[in-house]
Amino acid sequence: MSDKLLIVRDLAKHFGHGRMGRNVPIKAVDGVSFSVARGEVVGLVGESGSGKTTIGRSILRLVEPTAGEVIFDGKNLPKLSPAEMRAQRRRMQYIFQDPFASLSPRMTIGEILTEGLAIQRIGTRAERRDKARAALAAVELPEDAIDRYAHEFSGGQRQRIGIARALALAPDFLVADEPVSALDVSVAAQIINLLRDLQARLGLTMLFISHDLAVVEFICDRVIVLYLGRVMEIASSEQLYAAPKHPYTRALLSAIPEPDLDRPRQRQILTGDIPSPANPPSGCVFRTRCPHAAPPCAETVPPLEEVAPGHFRACLRPDISL
Amino acid sequence: MAIAGLLQRHAKGPLARAVRRFAANGAALAGLAILLAMLALILAGPAFLAHQPNDIDLLAINQPPGGEHLLGTDGVGRDVLARLLEGGRISMLVATVSVAISLVIGFIVGSVAAMGGRFLDGLLMRGVDLAMTLPPVIFLLVLASITGAGIGSTILVIALLSWPVLSRMVRSRLLELRERDFVVAARGMGAGLGHLLWRHGLPNSIDILVVYATLQIAAAILLEAGLSFLGLGVPPPDASWGNMLNAARSSIVLERAPWQWMSPGAALVITVLAINFVGDGLRDAFDPRSDL
Predict the structure, then answer these.
(1) Interface touch B182/A93, C-beta < 8 Å
(2) Reported pTM
(3) What is the distance between the terminal CA atoms of chain A, rounded to a whole angstrom?
(4) Is A105 in the B-facing interface, judged by CB distances under 8 Å?
(5) In a designed cystine with B72, which of A83, B2, B89, B259 is the match (CB 3.0 to 4.6 A)?
(6) Residue B265's CB: how many other CB atoms inside 10 A?
(7) pLDDT in tens for each of the 292 residues of chain B?
(8) List of chain A residues whose C-beta atoms are within 8 Å of the C-beta of residue B187
(9) Facing A62 at nearest CB: one of B182, B184, B292
């Protein structure tokens, strides 16, 4: 039994490879490897289109990965039969970004919260309802919410219901896909605090997907920086925020608003847009926007190298000091 | 207590809102009232009539309305009113049963196609293509000549003709639904095809089904009338609105005995109109754009 709950190896997801072979596949995720220890919160950050959500969904097989291994507690999920996968699903849950799309408008909150338990055939109807009440209490919603419909709640309350749904199955592993990016700042802070409390209290292992670096720093133990479906840098939160080793991470971090106006800051603004994943740049995918790009960057795909204990980066320029 | 709780619980549900919107629609309510009156008449009326639909009174042939025979008699002295009510019962029976069958087939085919993966989808939709390309009248002629005329085969023919359109509608609704987060969540919790169809597919296409059913009942009544008019539907001596209209093929009846074809014609028009009003009202009531 290893201390790694989840090991992802060379995960790839290519979309739209037509059977006729005419379409160029979109490499949403390519060659992504990382691991998550038990009880750890790992952040997955990157721009829109960098493959964050695709990775989260591929791990839970909500989309089928094209290649690679997802080893969850010793079992390689993409190879499991439907019945075996079904048994594993109760141990891993997903929290959605949009609280308005993630709850069925035709079910009461009680039905939504007991759905997973019913699917997994856990307990009697009354027991399931008790678990739903407990889940509501865990996310600090009133008990009478159980017989109401989702449209009667605000965005923040709905997101709490979404979290309660994930918790009702008592999972070991959660994927939180930008759980607060659709919410107001004040509400988002409450949800983040709630998630952090729940994580600590229940000992949850969590993959936290976000583009908000400040939130990630607050909640995550380790951070994975993605660009165009590839890992750029992996480091503990402290290391990453104190000493980013990759030019892309550095550009991202310089974009965090700084409340202290007197502090000197160097904003490093990336020019251009993220390239099309259908036609990614050769070599290092970031080179088209990298201020330090050199000719070799176009030729070799940079491997993920350990540059400090527990700190990995994928960059060919060891000479640049960041 | 339990019932009160259930009512309370559903008072704010999407279905309750649809019912409220329907109740605010005058034309739809009028249609519903006419339809219910018609149904009451058809179902309860015969009990109060002196004549049976197939009673032949050769002393009272082609009698105009009034007197003992309220709507007159036909060419062999049968009471038109009694036959009208009997025919309505058969027309309604044929229409509702055939629509029920086509609802089941259409929903299952459409939803399995949408949720069952790419291979099943292709297979089922090519089947639907095939069923849709069958020329209806010729299909009817062939089927009717194989199975023979009769109530059962009429029901079968109408059911087999009407499901493909519904399965297309259900499929397109569920294709969109499949990508919605709450359905993805259900899959993430291990939901199988049965759960997805029953707990998500059906509640979210109930509007399509209800509207389709009402409008299709009207169409089925017309189809049955058409079939019976052609002699391929409900065979005499059983009465149906279609085979009563058949009498109008004779120019003597058409000119000299209008009560024999006007009453089933009027009944047909009124019923179909009323059902269409109800269907339109239901469609408006379920319109998601008016939700919120």
Answers:
(1) no
(2) 0.80
(3) 38
(4) yes
(5) B259
(6) 16
(7) 445 444 555 556 777 777 888 888 888 899 899 989 888 888 887 777 777 777 777 777 777 777 777 777 777 778 888 888 888 888 888 888 999 999 999 999 999 999 888 899 999 999 999 888 877 777 777 877 787 777 888 888 888 888 898 999 999 999 999 889 999 999 889 888 889 988 888 888 888 888 888 888 888 888 888 877 777 777 777 888 877 887 777 777 777 778 878 888 888 888 888 988 888 888 788 765 554 4
(8) 62
(9) B184
